[in-house]
User: Fold this.
Amino acid sequence: MRLPRHPVVRLAVFGLAGLLVIQLVPVWLLQTNPPVAAEPAWDSPATRALAQRACFDCHSNETVWPWYSKVAPAAWLVTRDVLGGRAQLNFSEWAVHAGHNHADEAGELVTSGEMPLPLYVVMHPQADLTPAERQQLADGLLRTFGGDSD
Assistant:
């Protein structure tokens, strides 16, 4: 088979071939939802609902893996974010995280807009919390985690 001479066409052919080859990296094997072991004792159903809407995909074992999470390179980014998020704070494995006071840090990340991640919000508009919802979630997490804001 002869490759096209035009550099743009050649680049397109190699780019497409590269995209096909990277699909063979089996990152989807890491995209699991282990059973929910234990959740925190939520201060209210409203706090849990806000956390579920904005946090659970990366910070629980109840991740919804959308279609693009199966296609590289997006699969790599989504999987990295979920595994990293679960390692930091996992609402589904609360026994592991209960000894740590995440309240101040989690509340600060939510109120500052750092969490949920901006790219996540672009792909999941339901996670775009209003300033009032951000404050409500931060306050609810503080009460749920039993932390103090001193």
About this structure: The chain has one domain: 26-145. Residues 7-22 form the longest helix (16 residues). The two ends are 70 Å apart (CA to CA). DSSP finds eight helices and no strands in the chain.
